[in-house]
Records
---
Amino acid sequence: MSRVLLSGMSGTGKSTLLEAVARRGYRCVDTDDGDWFDEQRRWDTARITELLESSETLLVQGTVENQGQFYHWFDHIVLLSAPLDVLLARVRSRTNNPYGRTAAERTEIAHCHRTVEPLLRKGCTLELDGRQSVQRLADTVESLLRQPISG
């Protein structure tokens, strides 16, 4: 069993995928929910380290500035991506998260798609197309979670 980090821009379907994998019985943590951040909106080192030490099989969802310092804990770093027009359409219509409804937020998403996503791509071990069915994406992530822990 292994640890997987799921990362990506707003609107790619990370939360939906996380929920689908959780329904399959895997431990999943959405770091957008709860008290995972320090005052700079980075992952709190002590809390994230404690989480990663506590489970050998784990799917963590989050996209934060300091996530790279935790990559060594993960067996797989998955980037969930989609074209910008798909992201913007999804954030306009989603009901589970208000982020992306304003023009300013959509401008920020476009900026991050252009500047942050390429950095995430460089650090990932696998990129998945967020336009695929949730079932197919969950099958892929589950197969990663079932792999033996490396090292």
---
Amino acid sequence: MNIRFLETFVWVARLRSFSSAADKLCTTQAAVSNRIATLERDLGVRLFERDLRNVSLTPQGERALAQAETIVRLTEELRLGVSEASSLRGRIAIGTIDSIVYAWLPKLIEAVKATYPDVDIDLTVDNSLTVSRLLLDRQVNLALIAGPVLAAECSNIDLCTYQCHWFAAPHLGLHGRRLSLVDIVANPIFAFSKGSQPHQNVLRLMESAGLDANLNLVRILNSNSLATITRLARDGMGVAVLPTEVAREMVERGELMQLDVDADLPPLHLHAVYREEPGSTLPALIARMAAQVAKAEDAATLTPSANARRNQIRIASHTK
């Protein structure tokens, strides 16, 4: 049985279109039709119902699809397993968020280029909601985001967890004492873009404290640019909600202070997400590489020297 014909079957089933499958496989619609006809003849069943507008799986096609996907995936894994990593070629579109860019994305890109020198990377940086939509629309192949993405065709790999805290410039005078949310909302709050996890977490805290953001009692300013948020916070324009790892260097330089607030922010859970698709293992390989890089970075911050530095920062953040 021809593996290429099985891959064609999987793509037609996923895209519900012979012409779309032909475009995806860089062939003609006639070639796709011939492959499916041959496969149906070999299997002795009809895989698709066709009319002028729609293509749908028959009951036999539904049963065959899962097995065909497994065979195609295992074939690709076998091919990669016996070949040199350096021989892997192609292009991958990665969508990610600022929090990862500021933390360990450069190390991931270095690792990809060292392992797969002939793989090119297209990078898109936006908020998690936008990147997840790009993934589902097949405009990016791999999403590194605050996830997961709960779609049947998507695989999610845990990357790491970022603790989030309140930060402000030293000259605002908010550090060195215990603060309530009422103290915090006397200043504008920077909490990433609307709909993001940090933004939703802030809204829930305000609601639980009886503070109504819709009556202008709380000024939440939104931006999907971490550079913008941190610049405004460092300039004393308000209080920022940031992952600790993102703010660490700014705290070390004395540009921001971590505040002692009686309202804890939930952590940010980061995931690598990719679509399970036939003949495409590069996103899965780089997703696993991203998990290794993220865990290595997390472990590096827990070394004795790093812990000592954190203790110094914590002491400094509680003293004027």
